Amino acid sequence: MKRILIIFILIFSITNLFADSVEEKVLEASNTMEKLVRSQSGIPMSIIQKAQAIVVIPGSVKFGFFVGGKFGEGVATIRKADGSWSYPFFIKLGGGSFGFQIGLEVVDSILVFRTKNSVDELLSDKFTLGVEASASAGPMSANVDKSSEVDMSAEIFTYSQNSGFFAGAILNGAVISNDNEKNRALYGNNANVKMIVTSKNLSDAYSVQEFLKNVNSLTKR
Hints:
By secondary structure, this protein is an alpha+beta fold. The chain has helices spanning 2-17, 22-38, 45-48, 116-123, 180-187, 193-198, 206-218; strands spanning 53-78, 89-113, 126-128, 135-137, 156-162, 165-168, 175-178.
């Protein structure tokens, strides 16, 4: 079983060797965010407008052959004290699972961070969903306060879309960590997450400005 898991990880790693540039990845995250939020059955506006941070993970890979796992990379942004959004920074997603499971799928996901504690965990080097910060599949109904199947106390709501099907996603156990290599590739060798999220004039790159314009439009109250 371990050999099968290693093979899947190698396939994912090799695929990323030929992946898009960091700027293209930011644009992909921006487009994925808009697609999932504006979807007819997408994230309720009352949820996204109150977000304290947003993580967008386009095209993560979820696989299983008795031993399963999920791997992906994405872009995160946090809401500042003045209500504006920080420059985007890169994160990585990884995790494994056991039990009867066979298949391979590519999933677009959005994680909506709702509390200061969850944002603090996102800004740390690494944390596990459902452990350091509680996570739950997010509500789909516009009338979210009456959603009986959702843990409304969860610090993070998770959503995903695969092959046109949109639903709350269960990602507990997945590990999110900062991708310092890609952050430096986008912003320069001295870039780190703390500097990225506190800077006011860090980058005028087209991809970054498009991302910020998009997230501001989607979360406008």
